[in-house]
């Protein structure tokens, strides 16, 4: 027998081919187990060093160390790792004999069964051959007990204190503690920028809030690497949309960001000799200047721009001539830049809903009204505004609508008020025919499919002209509008019919009075818009002249109405208001001029008519003051006559001081009654009673003498 490996093609061993295959596989497993036992202790030392490096990195140690210390630490870890790899240089792959010896030991059978199977017989003696074959068969029968066994690297001999387990526990803990900053903290170990940087490095960083917020910039760091102290409560709160600007001089600039920070291109070129980077802060995040080194990590909490709020301060009010007055409250954290009122038709509750008798959906000829609202200030943060809009000619006047107010801020946030159901105010018509025409106008404007119904109504109004339309001009106008509606085939033609119905109703109601009032309101609106957009002085002067001309025409027609209507009261103070507006414009106080113009509009919204209760009270006080003044004048004349009779040739004595004082105060009260409000009238009445009591007391004292 010798140790030569048997030939697998030998015919004597063809019967145990499977056994030989199993032996070969066991031999390979033994070789791999021996190799693992030799290599794993050295690899474990290297992996322990790598794990300790990850623990230090994820714990954030590199972030607080200077660049020089980072470089030294990284080199130290690299040296320890190389030292742990040095024993692997002597690594030797296990041989076949070592694998057979492991199989012999693992089988638990004496006489080296694995090695025996690899022996060969060199003798040709039949007896020896028979003995050899019997021995081989017994060995093959015990082949199932041959095992390579599991590797036993015996790490306890190389790491008796089990430091590898401690490193594993810390690795898991720091992995979860680092969170999303794992890559950033690991990369900080390789940040050596600034190790060779010059000593005169300057880093400046500041936050620029959006312009519309009105907030000043926030300085984060100053020269010579002095970081600004951040609030102790946590991240620095900044408005969303703010810009972080970092500027470095004398060195390269490297900024690491995370979270809601995004780098953007600078709007302006950086100063010569500096590097500058801009970042937009849209959400919570951090920023860290890695180069030059020595800068802290800044944390930011973005404060979002809240949407504005708008709501009705009180229910919409109808003004004279059908104008609508809206009062509303506006709030926003940085200021509202625009507001508007929007109307939508309110669906009827009848069985037809929004469909006509034929089942067709309503087809309005006009869009519902919508208009901009006047803001209390240019950027209103909290205030109450008021807008008066003339909707008397709008086709939707008198219709049931839903009002919604909208407000928008500089950031684009938009808010809406709660819907408010109302009936849109319109001009009041007193004549039956005019009211009927306005009703048919509204029906046609809101649903063009009802043109046949409107035509039937107009035709019915012309049945008995001697009873319903005795004036020939009204009948001819009604006939013309009916023929125009009959010939209308397009929506544009129907819109012309709507305009004709309005013109005819206004002509029947009051002739040309509304034209003068309309021209006056148009001139007023043009001047107000010019004040709001900052028009030139020349344009304002021209618009002011137009307004004065329109006001003169209005006053002339108003005077004619006063002559025909004795109960109408005169309009007082309009000319004085015009003069005040002119003075304010000349002084450049356009906001005050706009407010005075609104007061003029409210004064014009009061139609001529019988005096109100307040006006009657004012007139009564004025008459009583006049009576008091006449009594005082009579008393003064009587005193003068008595003085002349008693002392001829002497100079006339003046009025007694008490009477003169009462006379002076009464004249002042008379002046104050002009343009006084109801509250002021009550105060004037109390002062009048006091003067009357003083005069009565003085007379009694004179009579007693």
UniProtKB/TrEMBL annotation:
Organism the protein comes from: Bradyrhizobium barranii
Domain of life: Bacteria
Regions annotated as coiled coil: 513-564
Region (Disordered): 631-685
Comp. bias regions, Basic and acidic residues: 631-648, 661-671
Pfam family, one: DUF4175
Transmembrane feature ranges: 46-65, 71-93
Protein name: TIGR02302 family protein
Keywords: Coiled coil, Membrane, Transmembrane, Transmembrane helix
């Amino acid at each position: 027998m010798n140790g030569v490996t048997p030939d697998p093609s030998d015919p004597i061993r063809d019967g145990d081919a499977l056994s030989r295959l199993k032996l070969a596989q066991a031999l390979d497993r033994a070789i791999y187990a021996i190799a693992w036992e030799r290599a794993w202790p050295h690899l474990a030392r290297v992996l322990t060093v790598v794990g300790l490096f990850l623990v230090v990195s994820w714990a954030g140690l590199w972030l607080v160390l200077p660049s020089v210390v980072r470089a030294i630490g990284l080199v130290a870890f690299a040296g320890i790792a190389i030292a742990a790899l040095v024993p692997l240089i002597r690594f030797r792959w296990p041989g076949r004999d070592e694998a057979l010896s492991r199989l012999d030991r693992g089988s638990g059978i004496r006489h080296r069964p694995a090695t025996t199977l690899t022996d060969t017989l060199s003798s040709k003696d039949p007896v020896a051959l028979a003995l050899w074959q019997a021995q081989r068969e017994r060995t093959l029968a015990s082949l199932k007990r041959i095992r390579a066994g599991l590797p036993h690297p015996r790490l306890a001999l190389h790491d008796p204190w089990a430091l590898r387990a401690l490193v594993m526990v810390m690795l898991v803990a720091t992995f979860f503690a680092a969170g999303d900053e794992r890559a950033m903290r690991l990369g900080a170990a390789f940040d050596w920028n600034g190790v060779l940087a010059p000593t005169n490095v300057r880093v400046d960083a500041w936050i620029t809030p959006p312009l519309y917020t009105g907030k000043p910039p926030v300085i984060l760091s100053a020269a010579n690497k002095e970081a600004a102290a951040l609030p102790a409560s946590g991240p620095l709160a900044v408005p969303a949309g703010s810009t972080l600007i970092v500027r470095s001089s004398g060195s390269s600039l490297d900024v690491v960001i995370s979270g809601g920070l995004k780098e953007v291109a600078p709007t302006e070129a950086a100063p010569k000799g500096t590097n500058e980077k801009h970042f937009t802060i849209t959400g919570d995040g951090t920023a860290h200047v890695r180069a030059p080194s020595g800068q802290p990590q800044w944390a930011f909490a973005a404060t979002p721009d809240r949407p504005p709020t708008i709501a009705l301060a009180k229910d919409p009010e109808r003004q004279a001539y059908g104008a609508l007055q809206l009062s509303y409250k506006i709030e926003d954290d940085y200021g509202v830049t625009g507001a508007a009122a929007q109307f939508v038709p309110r669906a009827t509750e009848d069985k037809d809903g929004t469909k006509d008798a034929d089942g067709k959906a309503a087809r309005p000829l006009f869009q519902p009204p919508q208009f901009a609202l006047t803001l209390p200030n240019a950027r209103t943060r909290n205030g109450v505004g008021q807008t008066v809009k003339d909707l008397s000619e709008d086709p939707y006047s008198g219709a049931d609508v839903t009002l919604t107010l909208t407000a928008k801020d500089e950031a684009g946030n938009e808010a809406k008020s709660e819907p408010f159901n109302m009936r849109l105010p319109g001009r009041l018509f007193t004549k039956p025919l005019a009211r009927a025409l306005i009703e048919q106008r509204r029906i046609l404007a809101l649903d063009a499919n009802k043109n046949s119904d409107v035509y039937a109504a107009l035709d019915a109004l012309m049945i008995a002209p001697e009873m319903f339309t005795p004036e020939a001009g009204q009948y001819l106008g009604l006939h013309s509008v009916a023929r125009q509606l009959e010939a209308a085939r397009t929506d544009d033609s129907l819109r012309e019919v709507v305009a004709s119905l309005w013109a005819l109703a206004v002509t029947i109601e009051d002739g040309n009075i509304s034209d003068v009032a309309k021209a006056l309101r148009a001139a007023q609106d043009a001047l107000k818009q010019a004040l709001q957009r900052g028009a030139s002085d020349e344009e304002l002067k021209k618009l002011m002249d137009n307004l004065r001309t329109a006001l003169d025409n209005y006053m002339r027609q108003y005077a004619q109405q006063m002559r025909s209507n004795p109960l109408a009261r005169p309009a007082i103070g309009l000319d004085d208001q015009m003069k005040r507006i002119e003075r304010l414009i000349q002084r450049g106080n356009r906001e005050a001029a706009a407010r005075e113009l609104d007061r003029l509009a409210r004064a014009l919204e009061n139609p001529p008519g019988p005096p109100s209760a307040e006006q009657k009270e004012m007139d009564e006080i004025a008459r009583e003051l006049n009576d008091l003044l006449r009594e005082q004048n009579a008393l003064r004349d009587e005193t003068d006559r008595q003085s002349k009779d008693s002392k001829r040739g002497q100079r006339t004595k003046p009025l007694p001081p008490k009477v003169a004082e009462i006379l002076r105060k009464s004249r002042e009260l008379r002046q104050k009654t002009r343009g006084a409000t109801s509250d002021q009238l009550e105060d004037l009445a109390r002062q009048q009673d006091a003067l009357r009591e003083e005069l009565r007391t003085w007379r009694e004292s004179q009579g007693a003498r």
